[in-house]
């Protein structure tokens, strides 16, 4: 069995801060991260999706966490095809005369600016890697990115830009996993050395590269479909996922579970407990 790390998607977004999980005495960003790291050994740093953090920020993340803690860092959304506000760009890379109210796309920038954004992303990752805290770089592609030759080239080019950091690819459009195309997609990622981010209720579980990554979300409400999520706690569902994770861990040296539910901290804690009932070779600890 491989090492299993459990954490949440972000450690202190608005929903999490409003959940009451953090003690009232923990008020600062550094304090919240330190408290979080006393409970879990993995987190998704999703702030990078909205803007590339300065190296000083990621160095502070490393300083607030103990040895063995891991950050899976989400890449800047513009680099994976998401429209991005002008304010999210570094001031020196903003196109002259750009409309502040119109979202930018990667094609709106000169190639030199895109290259500079990749450079700054890697500079932001350096302190985490130097401290032994960096896990995977999460490449979350837009849900509208359907399978096709141009889309394949985009995904593979983006994977290459991550080198030498380990990439993990999140593909939401169902066309990547329809019928025989699922095997083709998995082979593409395997050959490129990229992990598939296995999203619950979107596609199955598979290991294409290390670390294997699973994103656990609230299930779709049966009466409403995938557009609306069922936020009710579901102990049988968590137990079922613990069993699935044990099975997947047999095929991976390291497995990262990112819990992205409404009650993410508490669901993640419960999964730690369920996994610990049948110990794996991991640093899991009940809280």
TrEMBL record:
It holds the Pfam family DUF72. Residues 216-235 are annotated as: Disordered. It comes from the Bacteria. InterPro entries: DUF72, UPF0759_sf. This is DUF72 domain-containing protein. The lineage of its organism: Bacteria, Bacillati, Actinomycetota, Actinomycetes, Micromonosporales.
